[in-house]
Amino acid sequence: MLQVHSHALLKLVKGKKRGNRFILGIDGLSRSGKTTLTHSLCKHLKEEGIAHAVFHIDDYIVERKRRYNTGRDEWFEYYFLQWDLHDIRQNLLEKLLLSKEIALSFYDPGSDSHDVRSIQLPEECLIIVEGVFLQRQEWRSFFDYMVFLDCPQEERFLRESEETQRNREKFKSRYWKAEDFYLKAVSPRKKADLVFNV
């Protein structure tokens, strides 16, 4: 199904692209298929010789001490503290349209630390940003087109590893509450330009 969606999305974006760069957001809750759709879309782009760059929001999360045991509710930590919202806005999103080079702090989960890497961007390209909560107020205005992948919570949970599924309580208190907040406060299904039911 996502293969079909990626082909349709490629046609749509090609029809809408104007100017040198086009910023496409692929939004969706955890395990909804964002990365799979992105990979499939990139395969089509490569086949057609279309220059593109991909940014995964989860590459830029903050170190554990800034997002765990902060004294705030777990869902709050995940939604508001998992990423440095201002840093991503200032050092990634604000630079996507015009910058030839972007320096970003990539998170390494093994060492719980960051290393700065420079990303070169072609003057003309399709830029794909993939991640959860992309339509939050701090980020939404930077996207030319937004796709939201809609998938039932229980189906998404079953895509987790068996080990991860054993910790259902963490999902209830941390992830699902944050997702519920996003769905109610932001209404991503309504605000997206295109919704795929997956």
TrEMBL record:
Residues 23-197 form the Phosphoribulokinase/uridine kinase domain. Signal peptide: none annotated. Pfam families: PRK. One of its GO terms (molecular function) is kinase activity. This is Phosphoribulokinase/uridine kinase domain-containing protein. It comes from Bacillus salacetis.
